[in-house]
Amino acid sequence: MRRVQFIELHDQPWFPSSLRDYVTDSLQFGFNLLKSYAPVGPLLQRAIDSTCSISIVDMCSGGGGPWLDLCRKLQGRNPGGYLSSLQIRLTDKYPNLKAFQNARLASENQITFYPGPVDATKVPRELKGLRTMFTSFHHFLPDDARAVLQDAVDAGEGVAIFEITRRAWSTIGLTFAFVFLLFIGTLWIRPFRWARLLWTYLVPILPVVLLFDGVVSCLRTYGPRELREMVEKVTANEYQWEIGEHATGMAPITYLIGYPRASAGEL
């Protein structure tokens, strides 16, 4: 199945911010419920160890990413090689500040956030740490996706990208099941909002957007071969790259991990 470049509705500047927050809240609820990214914990820990990172800069965080679960399982590693507590900072071009604040409270401040908009192709240099992305790299056109990687390299930061979506009929089928789960589970999403019920059940805009964007996400996702071709065009002579698909109980998770070779040599 060839990659299709198309828009996702909730990514568009004209999409109402309140509805966008409901969309990201729903995705967050589903990913947390299913612990969708728990299987990549060992891969992510290896990236943290390879970059001697004690901090994470999560980009395109949406409703908070998988961090409430992962932050309890991962440990930072300081330049001396010793284990340390890991600090996670959430960022987004359209930050869902209420969701970010909830994540900070639930994690007892292990998860914090950057309050302003952050362009993943031009991350502010004060945001230092291993850069992560979950279910979001496919949002970028090839040139912009390459710019995301190049910006991390130019800043001398490691990058770890994970995509649970795939260009496969089986994954598209799972997307329909996932959206149905979100439709049923809307009553349990917190904080409770009457407006969320309105836009889910009475005027079902949210399920339509979630389904449309979910299918488009699958069609837009880069496969390992395309990621390798992209990396070959990044100016990064001293970087180590790892690209592949990590097997899970459901669908494999595509990953791209890159870090300076010098960092790996310090361990």
Query: What is the CATH architecture assignment?
Result: 3-Layer(aba) Sandwich
Low-confidence runs of at least 5 consecutive residues: none
Number of domains: 1
Query: Quick one: how many beta strands?
Result: 9
CATH-defined fold name: Rossmann fold
Cα-atom radius of gyration: 18 Å
What pattern of helices and strands is seen along the backbone?
HHEHEEEHEEHEHHHHEEH
Roughly what fraction of the amino acids lie in strands?
15-25%
How would you describe the oligomerization state of the chains in this entry? single chain
Helix/strand/pairing class, anyone?
A: alpha/beta
Give the strand order of the largest sheet, numbering strands 1, 2, ... along the chain. 5-4-1-6-7-9-8
- In whole angstroms, the N-to-C terminal distance is 41 Å
CATH-wise, what's the superfamily? Vaccinia Virus protein VP39
Q: Provide the residue-averaged pLDDT.
A: 92
The major pleated sheet works out as:
7 strands, mixed
CATH class group: Alpha Beta
Protein topology:
Blueprint: H1 17-34, H2 41-51, E1 55-59, H3 67-70, E2 76-77, E3 83-84, E4 87-90, H4 97-106, E5 111-113, E6 130-134, H5 142-154, E7 159-163, H6 169-185, H7 194-202, H8 205-220, H9 224-232, E8 239-246, E9 253-260, H10 261-265
Parallel strand pairs: 1-4, 1-6, 4-5, 6-7
Antiparallel strand pairs: 2-3, 7-9, 8-9
Helix pairs in contact: 1-6, 6-8
